[in-house]
Amino acid sequence: MNLFFCNKNAPQVSYYAKVDDIPKQVFNELDCCNHLYFSPGYLSALELNHENIQFSYMVLLDQHSKAIGLAIIQLVDFYLDSVQETMESLFHWLRCIGRKAGLLSPEKPFKILTCGNTFVSGEHGIYIRPDQDKKKVINQSVAGLLHFVETVPNLKSEVDAFMVKDFAEETLASTDDLEDEGFYSFQVDPNMVMTLRPDWQDFDDYLAAMRTKFRVKAKKALEKSATLRVEALTAARMEALEPQLTQLYKSVASNASFNLGDFSLGAYVHLLNNLGDRYFVNAYWQESQLVGFASGMITDDSVDAHFVGIDYEVNRTYAVYQRMLYDYISMAIAHKARYLVLGRTASEIKSSVGAEPRDMTIYLRHKKTIPNKILSLFLRKIEPTAFVQKHPFKAVVPKK
């Protein structure tokens, strides 16, 4: 159902409650289906498997009512009491201040209306047609997000805050107007990305490019993990193993210091069916014991790592996580990708295999003025987790 069409007092947008409601003409005008994060197959897989999240979609229009962009809206419940580890002291401070001021309730979650994809790191929340002005479309998206609460019954009273995520450093010149709309920016852990060298034909070339210390470490991890069996899961196999895989996922997710919501592994079945060989879930077995899984997407120029699950009791013994990282690298080389996107968390170990940090900026605004001021004080205290950046590769000697 089309929830709302623009009028002269509103931003040039159309809102939709389901991705299947978006007319095919929109996707044709945008030509965005090859960008898998904005394809109906990917979006519907998320939508169908996360009943705790209210999904909506904004189609951004020009003066001729032609589609120039697509923005993902997700209403998520954020539980302050669930924050752990490095962020805990900051959130404890926010909880105390907010509750004393009567702004936060221990009985109900903090509801955030998000323009962006809560499940992946990177610019996967707003698709902008290449011939459009990026800054104008982002501003139009934010105006549409704020206007959205006026169009859906009860949403105005439910929403506590607005979030727009994630923006790379090179995009920040197009997002600076958000501060004029009352948004405050902050950074969490960076997106770790490896740039693959064009002369790498296989994993041995990757190893040969490493400094001795890191190559020895890699070979040791490969020896430890040599007995692991990797199974590429089909949708049917995924369905059968879902309970076990979910336990492994939760063991990793519970260690995250900042998490907007849990991913439902039921989405994997739809992703594997909808995206075919462009999506993968690999299970790791030690004899008959399931000890981990790794998932991801193959795009036109990158391999993007998504969620993993690990049995931490055997992780060190069999170097399970390191093996996953090296398998991601092998896959990226095999697909002749330019980049391997490894996401947030565990930044130091990812840097030890060759990934480098790319800062991502998030914008947040409370819907009320006084809480927004309190929120700004809190956001100023947020800093990405400190880590030592490793440099595993030998210097490249220019050819004469």
Q: What characteristics describe this protein?
A:
alpha+beta, 400 residues, 2 domains, Aminopeptidase, 34% helix, 7-stranded mixed sheet
Provide the fold topology.
Blueprint: E1 2-5, E2 13-16, H1 24-30, H2 40-48, E3 54-61, E4 67-78, H3 88-100, E5 110-115, E6 126-128, H4 134-148, H5 155-158, E7 161-168, E8 184-187, E9 191-195, H6 203-208, H7 212-224, E10 228-232, H8 235-253, H9 266-275, E11 279-286, E12 289-298, E13 302-310, H10 312-318, H11 320-334, E14 339-343, H12 347-352, E15 356-358, E16 360-366, H13 369-381
Parallel strand pairs: 5-7, 13-14
Antiparallel strand pairs: 1-2, 2-3, 3-4, 4-5, 4-6, 7-16, 8-16, 9-14, 9-15, 10-11, 11-12, 12-13
Helix pairs in contact: 2-9, 3-13, 8-9
Summarize the structure.
By secondary structure, this protein is an alpha+beta fold.
How would you sum up this structure, described in words?
By secondary structure, this protein is of the alpha+beta class. It has 2 domains: 2-189 and 360-381, Gcn5-related N-acetyltransferase (GNAT) (Aminopeptidase), CATH 3.40.630; 192-358, Gcn5-related N-acetyltransferase (GNAT) (Aminopeptidase). It is built from 13 helices and 16 strands. It has helices spanning 24-30, 40-48, 88-100, 134-148, 155-158, 203-208, 212-224, 235-253, 266-275, 312-318, 320-334, 347-352, 369-381; strands at residues 2-5, 13-16, 54-61, 67-78, 110-115, 126-128, 161-168, 184-187, 191-195, 228-232, 279-286, 289-298, 302-310, 339-343, 356-358, 360-366. The strands form 2 sheets. Strands 1, 2, 3, 4, 5, 6, 7, 8 and 16 form a 9-stranded mixed β-sheet that branches. A 7-stranded mixed β-sheet has the order 10-11-12-13-14-9-15, sandwiched between helices. The chain is globular, with a radius of gyration of 22 Å. Mean pLDDT is 89; it is low at 1-9 and 83-91.
